[in-house]
Amino acid sequence: MDAYIALLPGDGIGPEVVEAACAVLDAVAQGCELVLHCETYPIGGQAIDAYGTALPDTTLHACLAADAVLLGAVGGPKWDDPTASVRPEQGLLGLRKGLDLFANLRPVQPHPALLGSSPLRPERLQGVDLVVVRELTGGIYFGQPRLRRTFEGQEQAVDTMSYTVNEIERVARVAFELARQRRKKLTSVDKANVLECSRLWRQTVTRISQEYPDIQLEHILVDAASMFLITRPASFDVILTENMFGDILTDEASVLSGSMGNMPSASLGSAYNRLGKARGLYEPIHGSAPDIAGQGIANPIGTILSAAMLLRHSLGLEMQAQQIEGAVSKALANGYRTGDIAQPGEHRLDTRQITGVILDYL
Ligand code: IPM
Ligand code: MG
Q: Does 247 share its domain with 321?
């Protein structure tokens, strides 16, 4: 089988963690009859420096033509000027929109060996196994108008949150289908006591739930959800929420797994690739970590687990995906740690060393 993968290392630690994930993908490919065709394209700040835009056309077209996209991270202090008209994040948002990747899956499964790395008490983390399905191409991230103007003699900024029924239905179906393969519980998170978008969200999710009588549906307001996520995280199975709430809640949820560095994600739409599977974008949920960029010490596990999701969802290689997840799990169980998950006094491996350990366990 041939698979075409667009690699977008991006900024900061992006190139380091993507290199690690590629080594793992190459090793897996050797073990099965998979021929990987990987090409690297610019995105984010690095693309702004070279081409004046965070998402060059060649990058978008290559991603549209690829079977899957693996991304590192975008952004950094160099491009943080709030008055700049081009920003690295536009690359990522443009890519999500350009590929119509409306469903972002962010699984949270704290590894038993890492319960001590989370600031939460270990007994709270017992049995946590949840997935956040975050709507990714709508809401306040993309709503119009978005502008600055003068209003009553003052400078005013406007962002718009908007959702159509169709946008809610399609991501809700992804969440219900996922819940069906899991523990059959779906928590929809909104702010229906205040926002019109959330009232449409709740109505629509409730209506779609009639197609899924086997799934237990609950609605929780986002402020309460943020609290329950740390007071009773094990009570969640699939969490469905809109774009910005999902952004915030998944950073919070990453604390459950000990470090953001461990967290993978998959962004899917309704398009199929050449292989008849979902064309997807896979990326760790962490950012570009400019403070440690270039030192070779970043935790590559989030990206390596994203590569596993890529094999599962875009190439249909479930067994190989589990092979990677198993190897990561063994490395953690046997005490191998990068700096972000090491306890005081524990030996810290750098990016290449922990990748080497994972390759050995494959
Ligand atoms: C994420 C990130 C992005 C987002 C940024 C980099 C635009 O925080 O993927 O969670 O807000 O979606
Ligand atoms: Mg985020």
A: no
Number of domains in the chain: 2
Name the residue type at position 142.
F
Cα–Cα nearest to 160, from 248, 55, 75, 244:
244
Q: What is the mean pLDDT of residues 174-198?
A: 98
286-327 pLDDT tens trace: 999 999 999 999 999 999 999 999 999 999 999 999 999 999
Listed in sequence order, the residues at least 6 apart from 224 whose beta carbon sits closer than 8 Å to its beta carbon are none
Which of these is catalytic: 191, 277, 336, 340? Answer: 191
Q: Which of 8, 13, 55, 93 to mutate to test the pocket of ligand 1 (most atoms within 8 A of CB)?
A: 93
pLDDT at 213 over 90: yes
Q: The domain containing residue 225 runs over which residues?
A: 119-257
Residue nearest to atom 12 of ligand 1 (CA): 247
Is residue 341 within a helix (H) or strand (E), and if so which, with residue range?
none
Q: Is residue 107 part of a domain?
A: no
Q: Tell me, yes or no, if 237 is annotated catalytic.
A: no
The catalytic position among 57, 223, 272, 360 is: 223
Catalytic status, residue 251: yes
SS3 labels along 182-246: CCCEEEEEECCCCCHHHHHHHHHHHHHHCCCCCCEEEEEEHHHHHHHHHHCHHHCCEEEECHHHH
**126 and 95 within one domain:** no
Which pLDDT score is estimated for 68? 98
Q: Which is the closest atom of ligand 1 to the Cα of 74?
A: 6
pTM of model > 0.90: yes
Mean pLDDT of the 34-52 span: 97
Mutating to test ligand 1, I would choose from 11, 13, 89, 265 the residue with most ligand atoms within 8 A of its C-beta, which is: 89
In the residue annotation, 191 being an active-site residue is answered as yes
Domain identity same for 216 and 135: yes
80 and 147 inside one domain: no
Q: Please confirm, yes or no, whether 78 is among the known catalytic residues.
A: no
* 2 and 45 together in one domain: yes
Averaged pLDDT, 213-225: 98
